[in-house]
Amino acid sequence: MTSNRPYLLRAFYEWIVDNQCTPHIVVNANFPHVQVPVQFVQDGQIVLNVSPSAANNFTMDNDALSFSARFSGQPMQVYVPVDAVLAIYARENGEGTIFSESTIEEDYEEESYDADDELAPEVEQQPDSAAEQTPSQEGKPKKGAHLRVIK
């Protein structure tokens, strides 16, 4: 099956906009083919306002999202592959979701099976809140259901 990330990203985007909130995305700026203003990248990530009023000519498909915007008064074309989006949330209340960070190798490796291999379906669990645990948080209880961006 194809990745569910672009579908979930579109759904959360529409949900946030429909509720008159401002959608922001957290982007892995080091992901291949990402085009973002590098002067605003911190710790390899950038937070982008993708609201209809801030992102001109916004498009989002199964592969990437793109738009033009002004950064410090300078126009720029932004291009973000869907797999580079780490999270989407509403600025006003932190509601949103965190996506698992994928690697290129995971996404594009072809799996092969021998005839003796048992083909059990692999289930990828999606976080039920924006407080998905990361490997460094294993064993710790989940925090609240809101995503907080620390600048």
Layout of helices and strands, plus pairs?
Layout lengths: L4 H14 L4 E6 L16 E5 L6 E5 L3 E8 L2 E8 L3 E6 L5 E3 L5 H5 L43
Antiparallel strand pairs: 1-2, 1-6, 3-4, 4-5, 6-7
Describe the protein:
The model is unreliable at 103-145 (pLDDT under 50). Strand 6 and strand 7 form a beta hairpin. The chain has a four-stranded antiparallel beta sheet. A three-stranded antiparallel beta sheet has the order 3-4-5, with no helix packed on it. The relative contact order is 0.20. The protein is 13% helix and 27% strand. The protein contains two helices and seven strands, in the order αβββββββα.
Provide the descriptors you would attach to this structure in a database record.
alpha+beta, 151 residues
Condensed summary:
With 151 residues, the chain is an alpha+beta fold.
Can you tell me the residue ranges where pLDDT is under 50 for at least 5 consecutive residues?
Answer: 103-145
Counted by DSSP, the helix tally is 2
Query: In terms of structural class, how would the helical and strand content be classed?
Result: alpha+beta
Estimated radius of gyration: 17 Å
- Strands ordered across the widest β-sheet: 2-1-6-7
